[in-house]
Amino acid sequence: MLPILYSFRRCPFAIRARWALLHAGLLVHWREIELKAKPKEMLDASPKGTVPVLILPDGIVIDESLAIMRWALQQADPRGVMTARDSDLLIQVNDGSFKHHLDRFKYSDRYPGSSKEEHFQKGLEILRRWSKCISPNGWLLGDQMSLADAAIWPFVRQWRLADSVGFDADQELKPLRDWLRRFIEDPMFERLMQRADPWLPGGMQPIFPADAIAIPMDQSLFHLALADDWEAALLTGNYRVSTRGLSLEQVGFIHLSWQEQVQDTFNRFYADAGPVVTLRIDPKSVSAPLRADAIQTGVLFPHLYGPLPVASVVEVTPFSPLRSC
Ligand SMILES: N[C@@H](CCC(=O)N[C@@H](CS)C(=O)NCC(=O)O)C(=O)O
Predict the structure, then answer these.
(1) Which end of the chain is less packed: N or C, by CB atoms within 10 Å?
(2) Mean pLDDT (whole number) for 162-187
(3) Whose CA is closest to atom 13 on ligand 1?
(4) Which residues of 117-148 are buried (b: 16+ CB within 10 A; e: fewer)?
(5) What fold characterizes domain 82-188?
(6) How far is the CA of 177 from the centre of ligand 1 (A)?
(7) Which CATH architecture has domain 4-80+195-208?
(8) What is the C-alpha separation between 219 and 310, in angstroms, rounded?
(9) Domain 212-318, what architecture?
(10) Which of 219, 313, 325, 224 is nearest to 267 (CA)?
């Protein structure tokens, strides 16, 4: 059984929750809602009436976006977002004063009596401060992406939607612009912003992400590995290569294949490599999430969103390519 997510496409709180679910390799039943017509089922689960709301198969309700992020990243955190420096203070400023000024600047007609200009200036001050924090590696809190980066960017994107000319021209915001671009130019962004019709009880039950499916547990999965990489993994107990020359941390998952896809994967990526082995994996024995995601051509490939324990590999054979004569 999958968890149920009540979501609203444009809501930055819902975007950050979906970002974490996508990042962690999870699948959920997706119930898109309209804020002016919230489903009774959602209000019964969470009477405060805000999205996102995640309902776990055991009935536990998580109705704060940050708690959903933390829950998802506990299942899998392939890029180590949760291990980065403490993010709480920055997120508090975002969810508190920055969001306050953003709303009063972006939706000034909803706040009669408040000064649009004043809120613009206060919000801009925060953005400029964050821009100064960006490290040479391009993240808010040091060398790697943290929970703060992942939790804040949807709100900065919203600011930019309200003032793209100013945001794009401000010299002081250059580092923050480059930082935001990393999120919105990532191929994940399009998947995050997929559209669905509002959910109706008894109606269609789409899955988020819409271009992914669950992996059948009764079929072996395969991974082509450079023999040297596999030897190295035997020493540590975990294999952490995503695909040739790229690590799990860099890509966010380990590329796998179903049996009929192995030969083509070899032809595309390993034909000129040194010795290659085929790892046969029992999907039931891995604990990190598995999800089949569509690549650009629409073809589904299985992906593992965490390290591959060497004990999950049931067979290792030298790869011998099929030769046509
Ligand atoms: N603290 C909540 C805030 C969520 C929130 O305010 N979501 C907005 C949409 S962006 C909402 O549902 N508002 C209710 C409404 O507009 O009726 C969280 O982090 O999940």
Answers:
(1) C
(2) 97
(3) 50
(4) eebbebbbebbeebbeebeeeebbbeebbbbb
(5) Glutathione S-transferase Yfyf (Class Pi); Chain A, domain 2 (1.20.1050)
(6) 25
(7) 3-Layer(aba) Sandwich (3.40)
(8) 18
(9) Alpha-Beta Barrel (3.20)
(10) 224
Dist CA 132 CA 134 (whole Å): 6
Q: What is the pLDDT of residue 85?
A: 77
Mutate to test the pocket of ligand 1, among 51, 69, 92 (most ligand atoms within 8 A of CB): 51
Structure token digits, residue 301:
């490939």
What pLDDT does residue 80 have?
93
Ligand 1 atom closest to the Cα of residue 66 is 19
The backbone torsions φ and ψ at residue 203, rounded to the nearest 5 degrees and listed phi first, read -90, -160
pLDDT digits (tens, 9 = 90+) for 224-272: 999 999 999 999 999 999 999 999 999 999 999 999 999 999 999 999 9
Query: Among the atoms of ligand 1, which is closest to the Cα of residue 52?
Result: 20
* pLDDT higher than 80, residue 285: yes
Per the listing, tokens 């699948």 go with 27
Q: What is the pTM of this model?
A: 0.96
Residue 239, Cβ density class (10 Å: 0-12 exposed, 13-18 middle, ≥19 buried):
buried
Output the pLDDT for position 84.
80
The alpha carbon of 51 and the centre of ligand 1 are apart by a number of angstroms equal to: 5
Q: What ranges do the domains of the chain cover?
A: 4-80+195-208, 82-188, 212-318
Q: Which amino acid is at 262?
A: V
Residue type, 159: W
Radius of gyration of the chain (CA): 22
CB-based pocket (< 6 A), ligand 1:
8, 11, 13, 35, 49-52, 64-66
pLDDT category at 323 given cuts 50, 70, 90 is low
Report the pLDDT value the prediction gives residue 47, as an integer from 0 to 100: 98
Residue nearest to atom 10 of ligand 1 (CA): 11
Centre of ligand 1 to C-alpha 110, Å, is 16
